[in-house]
């Protein structure tokens, strides 16, 4: 039987942990709103961009643009893994990292060499431990991604793809489906597949007729496309970064919520045990006293 | 005068969404002006100033754009820009200081390292800001 003092100490320790997890839960809940606002603010730009690109691509048809062309032989693959800087967010980081690892093995088994861009300290740590050197790494930005970060990543990817040192680019990140649910996403960034653009944007479908026909392109449709594609890649990456930031807060709130619930349950169980042990001690004492008194009477 | 919707959108936010009578943007081939009922058009923009004349008002509003596109359709003009700011909000002194900082950073880096940063774009941005502020 554990003694009273031990149980009391455990109750105290669990309660103080509970206080921390509850605070973290509330902080994350407050941050979700801000992260979601940022996602919403950038949505019009992304939508217009996709819509414009879909229209231009349809118009240009088989373009010779380097970013649209699929490389026949896939020898070098670039994976952009987006995770957070901090842990305590449930499966948020592990899911992405495991998927990244799986993708790496898959590509390596197919005979390609894989390089990684790590966004978030957790990815950097994970890779360092496995002696993989990330091509680019970004720390301390996961909660507050910037356009600059996206611009650097996309410049690296586009440059590599255009010069032929990279044959495929993948994004692995968490999508914030809603405040409570995250969804692991793996997305191919390069080559840009314009055929999926139409399906992904309901807006395009509604406005299908809007830009068709006698649209004027200046300087020319090809030139517009050449300008649009790099911006599109950058927008895709930026979207993924802010999406992941929103998902991180959601995941953390969930994780902390269940931690708080577990702590509450544990305190309850321990309190019950504490009371039972205390009552047991009292019972023992009484029977000892009664026994002692009976012995004296005789 | 007939009016139409005009939006200026950046990745960070929707900067402008208003009824306009006329929009003038810095096209890559020279300035272009749009009135209501313009032919559908998509164009690359050069860095510079866009002017919007709101419906029923004489004050023309001016915005500085970098890395933009314009899409004109039947009833709407959408300007997409990497960066955009209202010309009224430009702080020319701050922009000059920033420009000096960026140039200083650029001087320290090799061409290869420079390609990994966005300093070149920053430099153009501050130069554009100063230019527009000077003209206004």
Quick gist of this model?
Chain A is built from seven helices and six strands; from the N terminus they run H-E-H-E-H-E-H-E-E-H-H-E-H. Chain A has helices spanning 4-60, 92-109, 121-129, 147-163, 195-200, 202-206, 221-297; strands spanning 76-82, 113-119, 136-138, 168-178, 181-190, 216-218. In chain A, 63% of the residues lie in helices and 14% in strands.
Give structural notes.
The complex is a heterodimer of chains A (298) and B (136). By secondary structure, chain A is of the alpha/beta class. Chain A has seven helices and six strands; from the N terminus they run αβαβαβαββααβα. Chain A has helices spanning 4-60, 92-109, 121-129, 147-163, 195-200, 202-206, 221-297; strands at 76-82, 113-119, 136-138, 168-178, 181-190, 216-218. In chain A, α2 (92-109) links the parallel β1 and β2. The radius of gyration of chain A is 28 Å and the shape is elongated. In chain A, 36% of the residues are buried. Chain B has a five-stranded mixed β-barrel with strand order 1-2-5-6-7. Chain B is elongated. The mean pLDDT of chain B is 82. Chain A binds chain B through residues 38, 41-42, 44-46, 48-49, 52, 55-56, 136, 147-148, 151-152, 155-156, 159, 207, 210-211, 213-219, 221, 223-224, 227-228, 231, 235, 238, and chain B through 7, 9-14, 27-29, 32, 39-44, 67, 69, 71, 73-74, 78, 80, 82, 115-118, 121.
Q: Give the CA-CA distance, first to last residue of chain A.
A: 33 Å
Shape category of chain B: elongated
Model regions low in confidence, pLDDT < 50 over at least 5 residues of chain B: none
The CATH superfamily of the largest domain in chain A bears the name: ATP synthase, F1 complex, gamma subunit
Mean pLDDT of chain B: 82
How are the strands ordered across the major sheet of chain B?
A: 1-2-5-6-7
Largest beta sheet of chain A: what is the strand line-up? 3-2-1-4-5
Q: How far is the first residue's CA from the last residue's CA of chain B?
A: 26 Å
The CATH architecture of the largest domain in chain B can be named as Sandwich
- The pLDDT mean of chain A sits at 85
């Amino acid at each position: 039987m554990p003694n009273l003092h031990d149980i009391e100490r455990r109750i105290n320790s669990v309660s103080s942990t509970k206080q921390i997890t509850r605070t973290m839960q509330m902080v994350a809940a407050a941050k979700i709103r801000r992260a979601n606002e940022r996602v919403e603010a950038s949505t019009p730009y992304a939508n217009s961009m996709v819509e414009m690109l879909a229209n231009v691509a349809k118009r240009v048809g088989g373009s010779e643009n380097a970013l649209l062309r699929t490389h026949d032989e896939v020898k070098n693959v670039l994976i952009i893994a987006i995770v957070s800087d901090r842990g305590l967010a449930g499966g948020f980081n592990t899911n992405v990292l495991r998927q990244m690892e799986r993708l790496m093995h898959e590509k390596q088994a197919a005979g390609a060499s894989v390089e990684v861009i790590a966004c978030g300290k957790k990815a950097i740590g994970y890779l360092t431990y496995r002696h993989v050197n990330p091509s680019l790494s970004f720390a301390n930005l996961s909660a507050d991604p910037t356009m600059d970060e996206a611009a650097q990543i996309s410049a690296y990817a586009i440059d590599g793809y255009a010069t032929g040192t990279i044959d495929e680019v993948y994004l692995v990140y968490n999508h914030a489906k809603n405040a409570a649910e995250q969804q692991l996403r793996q997305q191919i960034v390069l080559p840009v597949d314009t055929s999926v653009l139409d399906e992904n944007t309901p807006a395009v479908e509604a406005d299908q007729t809007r830009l068709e026909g006698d649209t004027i392109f200046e300087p020319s449709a090809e030139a517009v496309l050449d300008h649009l594609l790099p911006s599109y890649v950058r927008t895709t990456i930026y979207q993924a970064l802010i999406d992941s930031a929103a998902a991180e807060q959601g995941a953390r709130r969930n994780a902390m919520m269940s931690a708080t619930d577990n702590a509450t349950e544990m305190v309850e169980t321990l309190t019950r045990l504490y009371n039972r042990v205390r009552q047991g001690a009292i019972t023992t004492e009484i029977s000892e006293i009664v026994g002692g008194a009976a012995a004296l009477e005789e | 005068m007939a009016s139409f919707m005009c939006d200026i959108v950046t990745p960070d936010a929707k900067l402008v969404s208003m009824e306009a009578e006329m929009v003038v943007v810095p096209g890559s081939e020279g300035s272009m002006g749009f009135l209501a009922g313009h032919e559908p058009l998509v164009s690359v923009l050069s860095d510079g100033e866009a002017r919007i004349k709101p419906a029923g008002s004489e004050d023309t509003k001016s915005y500085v754009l970098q890395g933009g596109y314009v899409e004109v359709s039947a009833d709407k003009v959408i300007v997409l820009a990497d960066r955009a700011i209202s010309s009224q909000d430009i702080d020319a002194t701050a922009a000059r200081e920033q420009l000096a900082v960026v140039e200083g950073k650029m001087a320290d880096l090799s061409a290869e390292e420079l390609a990994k940063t966005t300093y070149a774009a920053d430099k153009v941005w501050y130069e554009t800001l100063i230019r527009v502020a000077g003209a206004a």
